[in-house]
Amino acid sequence: MEMYVSKLKLNPTPGLEPFRRAFDPDPGQALDAHHRLIWTVFCDHEERERDFLFRQTGRTEFMSLSHREPVASPFFPNPDVRKVTLDFRAGDLVTFELRANATKQITYEDKKYRVDVVMNSLHDIPGVTVNPDMPESLRAKKRMSSAQIEGRKWLDRKGVQHGFEVQSLAIEDYRQNRLPKGNRGGSPQFSILDMIGDLRVTYPDAFTSVVVNGVGRAKAFGCGLFLVHKIRRRA
Question: What is the pTM of this model?
């Protein structure tokens, strides 16, 4: 399958409001701005649905994976684009990075809810979410400990669904973000896990599909893209 991998470097245009918001100290505001900025190179008509994945890779840099070649915009005047052929085989060992919104569905009092895997697990740890006297440093330590465990469980489950087995995994960061209020009211909140690791491809077609379509939720805000750095193929 042929796709386009693009490096997008933001043009420094401080006078434009979307550019200013991209560096808002509030992470949720910045994520919302990134979402809108990336659309400028992919939105060729008003009815276009998202057919790309992206991730912020630096302060002004982004990577995208798309079915269509991006076009220059005032914010990204010189996209660095290359066409790639996705050719995974069973047994391939893949080194990857992944920024993911890891959630699962639970049932409570006959109602189904979508919950963040890390925060849901912390409800079972006394004092983490209810003790106001616990130092923030200890809360953060417990959150990261839970993120390591729950992040691995989540990716293992995704591997069963999408044709890969996790060989090694490290959680580099876990954070929560609150987006600006939209037309529907309220401020949507979601969490992000930054992962690096190695996986083994078990079903190439299924793995290719998840690379193309992304994994997890919040893809519109820079989550779900597997950044594949190295493929080691069996002889």
Answer: 0.85
